[in-house]
Amino acid sequence: MVKRSYTTFKDNSLFEEAIRLTMTINNTYHEPTELRALMSQLIGKSVPDSFRFFPPFYTDFGKNITIGEDVFINSGCHFQDQGGIEIGEGCLIGHNVVLATVNHALEPSQDRKNVYAPISIGRKVWIGSNVTVLPGVSIGDWAVIAAGAVVTKNVPAYTVVGGVPAKMIKQINPEL
Length: 176
Hints:
Blueprint: H1 12-26, H2 32-43, E1 52-53, E2 57-59, E3 65-67, E4 72-73, E5 77-80, E6 85-87, E7 92-93, E8 98-100, E9 102-104, E10 114-116, E11 119-121, E12 126-127, E13 132-133, E14 138-139, E15 144-145, E16 150-151, E17 159-162, E18 167-171
Parallel strand pairs: 1-4, 2-5, 3-6, 4-7, 5-8, 6-11, 7-12, 8-13, 11-14, 12-15, 13-16, 15-17
Antiparallel strand pairs: 9-10, 17-18
Helix pairs in contact: 1-2
């Protein structure tokens, strides 16, 4: 995926807008077209007509999320997107997935200063329920992340990972 810069919390009105829009998304029923319109407003760009998601959905910012064609996001997901989140076409994201792009400096001299790193999810990735993906992780095309995994390192394409921390379980044969 293309490296790009991301918007940060310099303007509190964007933070407040994310709270308002997620409250709107999560607290009343919306037709699928209404949900896509609200998500487009939340992320600041159009989502494809093929995008589907089930609320509730939570994000701390929204403007740094990019969503490809045919993406499905299940209910209860939390996207901490200040560092940037890119989701490739055809991805399936299970219940309660956390994509966290913000960490804190460990050094006392840094006083827990925020550190940002993007998450990049390739094409046709399947992320199981209750997965946590940490800052700076890239997940390759057709990878599978087993339910409950904590992904701390990059995942190659055509790989199944699982566990805490996530480790390779097997390779997927791309020819089958």
